Predict the 3D structure of the following.
Amino acid sequence: MSSQISVATLGVPRIGRHRELKLALESYWSRKSSATDLIDAAKKLRVANWLEQRDRGVTAIPSNDFSLYDHMLDTAVMVGAIPSRYGWSGGNVSLDTYFAMARGSQGDAEANCGHAHAHDQGHHGVTALEMTKWFDTNYHYMVPEFSTEQSFVLSSTKPVDEFLEAKALGIHNRPVLVGPLTFLKLGKSLETGFNPIALLAKLMPVYEELLRKLAAAGAEWVQIDEPALALDLIPNEREAFKFAYRRLAQAAPDLKIMLNTYFGALGADLDAALAVPVHGLHIDLVRAPDQLAAVVEKARPDLVLSLGVVDGRNIWRANLPSILDMVEPVAAREGAAGIEIAPSCSLLHVPIDVELERALESDLKSWLAFAVQKMEELATIAGALADGRASVQAKLDASAATLASRASSLTVNDPLVQGRMAEIGEGMKKRKSSFAVRRRLQAAKLRLPAFPTTTIGSFPQTAEVRKARSKHAKGELSYMDYDAFLKKETAAAIRWQEEIGLDVLVHGEFERNDMVQYFGEQLSGFAFTQHAWVQSYGSRYVRPPVIFGDVSRPNPMTVAWWQYAQSLASRPVKGMLTGPVTILNWSFVRNDLSRSEVCRQIALAIRDEVVDLEKAGAKMIQIDEAALREGLPLRKADWKTYLDWAVECFRICSSGVVDETQIHTHMCYSEFNQIIDAIAAMDADVISIETSRSRMELLDAFKSFKYPNEIGPGVYDIHSPRVPEVGEMADLLILARERFGDDQLWVNPDCGLKTRKWEEVRPALVNMVAAARQLRQTAEAA
């Protein structure tokens, strides 16, 4: 490429075109391969990523953006922030310790797998780090734990090692680090009232040592990511940020720092970001295009501006002529050496290559850009800036034609949906009676015991289930045979739940590939992919549906499976749905309509399903809103607008039933304190939430608020293979009783069980039922 303008990606997907990382990890965890096999597979993926970027015109190629599990976990390991329960006493951190932090560990037997591990470090039989959402994305990170006595030491040279690995291949690369402010701010304090930012002075020597090592290895630039600058910082955090970057600039004076911000505008922190002695600043111009003028006006003349102009969070082709209109004046002012063209954020959040999608309609496929196509778009923009638009005119014309095709497509706009949207009235947004009235009616109808037990919805998707689904998709298993297989699995799950004494059953969701994709495949306005995987956490990948047009529900989606399951059961079976906000937040959403309007369309479709389930006889319907909180804007000033329409959408879909029908919802890893009003406004009869990793701390928000409805605090962590003992869950329930009345509490795991194995699920749920019965006896004796 003749352009002199640098092109960066900031980071790329780690998983491999064919999910090679998932296969390597799960093979290692299941003891089918060695540590050497895993390390070799990881290296092959890194090399492939570097070569792909080089060949697509990327010139600032990142290194250390790869992770076996999570980049925040990597950072915690790198700086020695390893909680004492993992038994680490310094030196090399073994894979056993690393994965115990990520997934927990059942016990010593788990370590005796014959792998070429580093020495065992006594960490077995421990819980994992807490996990939560990475800003407002669907990526999950492992939450570092900090205390006032925390110490730090450089315990991994992974950034240096991977820089040298790429360098040896002739790849001119830029190491990527999570910045010290973001690392501490996103961590968890183990002590009430302690702000981990106070540890910055202790942490900085480790970062300084690392920068010196990178400089000695030959690095010219280092990318330091500080997405925390898109949050609302308090004054001491802003001062800590300035302190940190003054220190970093002095640590290795010849090493240039590209300070990366993304997911929003710098806002009140713009002056602070421009004041620190770094050599480059990346800004997100997809989420926050309005900040460009202020940044250009205030930036030092020698500061390289990395312009995040291609959407790193979504999959639509960029409007290249429009982007050039925005950045050409900046390029003219700053010169080729003064700017860099980049995506808004790391490409971690998008699939790898749209050309893998051979089954998509050609029109829709032409509207999409995955990571590889975004690299090409970046190179095109840089080429136009360096050599003039005429040099890439054919690509610009193609971009304009694609946009025109999409805007005029009859598959995008549905007048019937638009007409129904206009008819939404206040009566569609609330239940007929108050919760107090509904509760009495539901109690009389359901006749459940105290502390009723249930699960969140899904049961293990075993290798046999996945194999049958795959064979059916390939045409190797007929519809009738596949249907019979699913009914057999469902019947076995119903029978087993009744045998162990669960009070409210689920059908197990064996027919569902994913809690959002399953619905997307049955809704108009959605498309689904075959290979567009993105990482959610660790080896958990999802293929988000693509919302490209107006949404409606042509036919019932879950009623037949619910009817079959209930016909086998003597106890109530919950209808299981995914809520509109979660479907929205876990999909790739059209960018030609506001997210709130798209969400209302989905809400109407789910409302139809809720009403049909009730007509079929369902007494309980769960509408999961696992992703409600993750959609929150990063600036609190913008929260109310989002929460207002998000709650409205939940109420639209849940309010079409009679008072006697019990509406449940489920929310995953969320801090609820600041949105408790909105959760209460959803007015679900029962809410289930994750609380096991936090040891019921998340319930404090509900207690302070005096939450009136019923609640199921998760009593064990399903993201870990550990099987909790009866006493462990009973202790958590005792903590829950300190916060709620006995008549409010349900007993359940903290999330669905799809990703677990039956040998983990069976004893865990048996123990959970035993813990609930133990609690009933205690309550009755009191």
User: Anything to note?
Assistant: The two ends are 78 Å apart (CA to CA).
